Amino acid sequence: MVSIRLFSDNVSTACGPATTDVGPFYCPGDQTAYFDTSFFDVLVSQFGSSGGPLAQEYVVAHEFGHHVHDLQGTLGRAQQGPGGAEGNGVRTELQADCYAGVWAHYAAITKQEGTDVTFLQPLTDKDIEDALSAASSVGDDRIQQSSGGRVNPESWTHGSSAARQYWFTEGYRTGDPQKCDTFSATDLHE
After folding, report:
1. Kind and range of the H or E element at 71?
2. Can you name the residues that pair with 16 across neighbouring β-strands?
3. Are 32 and 4 in contact (CB under 8 A)?
């Protein structure tokens, strides 16, 4: 079962030490998703996300997507093959974005046991815009542009803003994890 751990400044994990600079991450060694308590403020102030509740929930669901990878035995694919915009590392991250969309799809329609209350209130266009804003904000191209550097797809680790938005939307629209096969996709929608 996956755990969540909040931290400030730095943390020791089964994957080694980490600092705030790493951002949210999943460690398969202890099956824990780690979140620096200041990250969601940074998402808005530094990365320019709109910061609504679904933006934050998207980030959490993305890290849980990596737990799904771990359970499937596919998380290691991220380290195989070439890197860059078409590499397996980016494909793994985009698949986690898609899984986050699948989660949002079902959380908005699935009723909590014994109630008529869904896990999330029905999602509005604004909610979806917030999630897409977060996805766009943490695209490699946007991060490279905002740091004053040139956009270099060869160094990407998470995918472009457009690709991150596309894959979240695909998961949300279909609710089908089978549609999240970024490894077979010939077009990552960059």
Report:
1. helix 53-72
2. 13
3. yes
Q: Three-class SS string for the chain?
A: CCEEEEECCEEEECCEEEEHHHCCEEECCCCEEEEECCHHHHHHHCCCCCCCHHHHHHHHHHHHHHHHHHHHCCHHHHHCCCCCCCCHHHHHHHHHHHHHHHHHHHHCCCECCCCCCECCCCCCHHHHHHHHHHHHHCCHHHHHHHCCCCCCHHHCCCCCHHHHHHHHHHHHHHCCHHHHCCCCCCCCCC
Q: How far apart are CA 97 and CA 171, in angstroms?
A: 8
Q: 151 and 161 in contact (C-beta within 8 Å)?
A: no
Q: Give the span between the Cα atoms of 186 and 94, in whole angstroms.
A: 13
Q: What is the pLDDT along the chain (190 residues), one digit of tens a residue?
A: 889 999 999 999 999 999 998 889 999 999 999 999 898 888 888 887 888 889 999 999 999 999 999 999 999 889 898 888 999 999 999 999 999 999 999 999 999 999 999 999 889 999 999 999 989 988 888 888 888 778 888 989 899 999 999 999 999 999 999 999 999 999 998 7
CB–CB of 97/69 below 8 Å? no
In degrees and rounded to multiples of 5, residue 189 shows phi and psi of 65, 50
Amino acid at the residue 72: Q
